[in-house]
Amino acid sequence: MDNSPSHVITDRGLLAGKVAFVSGAGRGIGAAAARLFAREGARVLLAARTERQLKEVTEEIRAAGGIAGYAVCDLADPASVRAAVDRAVELYGRLDVAFNNGATGVPPGPLDQTTEADFDQVYAVNLKGVWLAMAAQVAAVRATAGSGAIVNTSSVGSLRGNPALPSYGAMKRAVNSLTESAAVTYGPEGIRVNAIAPGTTLTEMMREWDERSPGVIDRLNARTPLGRAAAPEEVAQAAAWLLSDRASYVTGTVLPVDGGMQAA
Length: 264
Fold this sequence. Notes:
Elements: E1 19-23, H1 28-39, E2 43-48, H2 51-63, E3 67-72, H3 78-92, E4 97-100, H4 116-143, E5 148-153, H5 166-186, E6 191-198, H6 204-212, H7 216-222, H8 232-243, E7 254-257
Parallel strand pairs: 1-2, 1-4, 2-3, 4-5, 5-6, 6-7
Helix pairs in contact: 1-2, 1-8, 3-4, 4-5
């Protein structure tokens, strides 16, 4: 574990005093976000399907002086999603912010080669799971903190045609619509809702895609003005800012965090 000064918990930070819910927190962007949010002063509830990964990240946060707990959560199971959000309130007495980052991938390929089972799974996790989580989070924020913020993880692949991952891109584009609709609905209550649209990010999911399609990361980097993939923490930093009070007048946006890929 990195014990350099940048990884030591401090008393003040972007999310000081807030309770944060993070899904997909066992690895990748979600794990990076959980660590970052704790370093920025939040009490964090980590949620994901794999308990071993959750325990590891939770223990890292606690070892650095942060406050973290976890709940095993299957985003395709409505009762599991609601229970995980409720667990944050049980542990910390409130919910202020939530980062809906959990997602599942599908094998790359054209639309006609996507199986119905894969389509149904990516719908259940990447779209319905986000909808379920947002509904539970709005209720929890209303009942406790009163106001707050939600960030959903979309994808730069939702902002244009996505022939390699058509069902994944479709669900992420629908997440953008949910984000915008929720921002309009809950803005009058002081609940902000935004999304981030990461580009190529060095997560386990991205590395698995590169293994199945060797060279895909290099090809994506060649289309990216910054010429490289993001580290998971670089994406998490954008989510942290959107959840913080420093983004207090930002809602209803889908923020590309893509090294300029969408602009190219």
